[in-house]
Design brief:
- Strands 1, 2, 3, 4, 5, 6 and 7 form a 7-stranded mixed β-sheet that branches.
- The protein is built from 7 helices and 7 strands, in the order βαβαββαββαβααα.
- It has one domain: Maf protein (Alpha-Beta Complex).
- The protein is globular, with a radius of gyration of 18 Å.
- It is an alpha/beta fold.
Amino acid sequence: MLGRPKLVLASGSPRRLSLLNQAGIEPDALRPSDIDETPKRGELPRACANRLAHAKADAALKSLQLDSDLRGAFILAADTVVAVGRRILPKAELVDEASQCLRLLSGRNHRVYTAICLVTPKGNFRQRLIETRVRFKRLTEEDITAYIGSGEWRGKAGGYAVQGVAGSFVVKLVGSYTNVVGLPLYESVSLLGGEGFPIRFGWLNTTNAG
């Protein structure tokens, strides 16, 4: 462990943490940021995801300035946006929001964008944007009512969580599946490794634990 650079995940999302753990990476700390995630008027989905990921990374960087243990750590932030055309769907918190999202997604294609932003120990920002195309089956009112009852949609971009029941709605998915879950794993690990983070450090323990 001596000398291993530290990693801070600028998110409180259990899905993002679980995905990193799947790759054998255990963040040293979680620093979810409390920023306004409301899209700006007329803002396009790609621009919104990029802006929010950068803002989350920047907020986490500022919070670490007072923490001597974590100062100089790698910081990984992400923001996921679900869009139909130019329209950004909300991170549904209310039943009406989730129902509207599901009716809009029913029987049609949508795109999921996740922007990842990595802050290096030298304070450099590295950013990537990943796009996945998803098509839902035509949802009946019974499908929508039952899914709303599951509660899985709450707080999720587009009003659904693909790793749960809504995975059965997906007719076709083109691109990164982990991107739709909330953290594109290949791109995140590649970005970390490319900047010198020892991504294979935890693999031996992960294998033994299995």
